[in-house]
Amino acid sequence: MRIAQVAPLIESVPPKHYGGTERIVSYLTEELVRVGHDVTLFASGDSVTSARLIASCQRSLRKNERCKDPVAREVLLLDHLIEQIDEFDLIHFHTGYLHFPICRYLRVPHVTTLHGRLDIPELVPVFDRFRNERLISISNAQRQPLSWANWQATIYHGLPKDLFQFYPDRGDYLAFLGRISPEKRVDRAIEIAKRAGMRLKIAAKVDRVDKRYFKRVVEPMLQESHVEWIGEISDQEKAFGLVMIEAMACGTPVIAYDAGSVSEVMEHGVTGLIVTKLDGAVEAIGRVANLSRARCREVFEKRFTASRMASDYVKVYRRMIDARMRNLNRCFESSLRAIARQPDALKDRKRTQKRPALIT
Amino acid sequence: MRIAQVAPLIESVPPKHYGGTERIVSYLTEELVRVGHDVTLFASGDSVTSARLIASCQRSLRKNERCKDPVAREVLLLDHLIEQIDEFDLIHFHTGYLHFPICRYLRVPHVTTLHGRLDIPELVPVFDRFRNERLISISNAQRQPLSWANWQATIYHGLPKDLFQFYPDRGDYLAFLGRISPEKRVDRAIEIAKRAGMRLKIAAKVDRVDKRYFKRVVEPMLQESHVEWIGEISDQEKAFGLVMIEAMACGTPVIAYDAGSVSEVMEHGVTGLIVTKLDGAVEAIGRVANLSRARCREVFEKRFTASRMASDYVKVYRRMIDARMRNLNRCFESSLRAIARQPDALKDRKRTQKRPALIT
């Protein structure tokens, strides 16, 4: 299958710094190449891939201080893609909605994975107007603000099988992994560890917007003797649910509040425990010891590898290509019938078509 | 002529607050309607026009605090336009470059007026790649960073003839009109007025980014006895050269440093004096008294009315429509010849065409 993967330009693929979307695009692309597809990656020029790379800018945009207008590069990327679109059987966008107006008129099947939060009011009229655009969600929870949109599938993220090593032995500390921000509630993790009498290692990055919160709320709590601040470790801006999957890959069970995709990704009582209150979380620390680390790894290998993710995507691609072929065949046959009935039919069809004034 | 005017959504047309571009789009639209064209304005829903209004959002975006993603609305606007594009003889964009990828494939002639500064590095590859897109500049000076782009004309702004009243009598004070920011050099105006022994009235707005500069540099200078601070008056974010044109309409000569479009808009020794140094500016205040206020108004009426602006635009529109017709005729004739030579020619042409997979 000749597949185009269209990545954001904000980070390289894979990302040198943070970039959950770019990591997933990279895993998917490499896996598709590995199983024999002919893949072209549209991404920034500092990307590294075994696919064919087509770059509309040399460097990814986040580190490019001079870049005042990121949309300019995205517009270029889109045009590079359209120019060679006949080379592909399927286009897979990871770039939001900017391509929707022109994609209405694409002859090539295409699908868009939405990687971000969808609870932004401006998105409603866009996805309403472009209801024909086929979408993929990364969890069922993510769909909620646009539940009526044209969803084709939920495809959970996957990691290369050997990216994380399985650790059979239980450690003697708790870990908090992620971003320091009010809604991530590292303060709760510190409180929970304290009550459970366990050490807590915190590996987290602090975004600029969260500096004040870190200084005021979190930093004083780091003085407590049971807390160890590790700070920023690489590859740490996790896409939705990615932390849970990484823990699973290592064999580490997770204790999580029930929010977002938690209940979809985690199997309660198997790969971790879902809690609703702080008391419940403290109590869960005792019970989590009974969960099998080997079973966590098993679930990872079954449900959350890049290979499973790629194969789910290929199923969607295949379905879309088949639908397109059926459609074309139908059009072709009805054209033949029309021509047989009336030689001027082609002319009439042209006159009555509604959409639109594009030159091919 | 059936003309679509496509305005930015950041402000209504005309703007309720600041918005040089939206003011010009409004003047142009109203003038085109007045002289009998069939005009459709694509703009925010709070716009007021005698043209047909098509709105992709109810309210303009600047005052809409909830709007986190302005590109979403622009994408909608574009799609509304494309949907009915066959209704128009010509599309006139005032919205930057977002439409370039899809406009490559438009059957309808279209042109884009660039209203802003062009010295942004990201613009270079965009205008390089879309060299076929026809552009209009609002001054020759504006073109400089992209001098090689596909410029069709420079069309200076124009104001409705009766928007400003002619004042035949000279006042006894100087005025500074515009925005408080380091590059506008209100400090110089204060110094010049002081040296010339004249009062200076300052009507200016202070943008958020310039608050610090205002507090630190300008505010202390406002204490001087010859300075009168008027503050923000409406309609004050002037597009390039608009202040000069407004002064002309009132019959007021201008003293200006030679920058941007100054030497194109102002006729040195007729509607004002161009200076290069502070000393020269002080000295010019004496000489400016000799310039005829009636002559300033005459120049305004000849060169800078909305009616002149609209007629310049119509000339460009006409040229583009004619070129398109010639092109179509050529295509049609060569198709006829090809068919005459070889009945399979149509099929072959389809196979060898390079651009691209769009459905019409």
Any overview of this molecule?
Two copies of one chain form a homodimer. Chain A has 360 residues and is of the alpha/beta class. The first copy, chain A, has 13 helices and twelve strands. The first copy, chain A, has helices at residues 20-34, 70-83, 100-103, 123-129, 140-143, 186-196, 211-221, 242-250, 262-265, 278-288, 293-303, 306-341, 345-352, and strands at residues 2-6, 38-43, 52-55, 90-93, 110-113, 135-137, 151-154, 173-179, 199-205, 227-231, 254-257, 272-275. In chain A, the strands form three sheets. The first copy, chain A, has a seven-stranded parallel sheet, with helices on both faces. The first copy, chain A, has a three-stranded parallel sheet with strand order 8-9-10, with helices on one face. In chain A, helix 1 (20-34) crosses helix 12 (306-341).
What secondary-structure arrangement, pairings included, does this model have?
Two copies of one chain form a homodimer.
Chain A (H helix, E strand, L loop, with lengths): L1 E5 L13 H15 L3 E6 L8 E4 L14 H14 L6 E4 L6 H4 L6 E4 L9 H7 L5 E3 L2 H4 L7 E4 L18 E7 L6 H11 L2 E7 L5 H11 L5 E5 L10 H9 L3 E4 L4 H4 L6 E4 L2 H11 L4 H11 L2 H36 L3 H8 L8
Parallel strand pairs in A: 1-2, 1-4, 2-3, 4-5, 5-6, 6-7, 8-9, 9-10, 11-12
Helix pairs in contact in A: 1-12, 6-10, 8-11
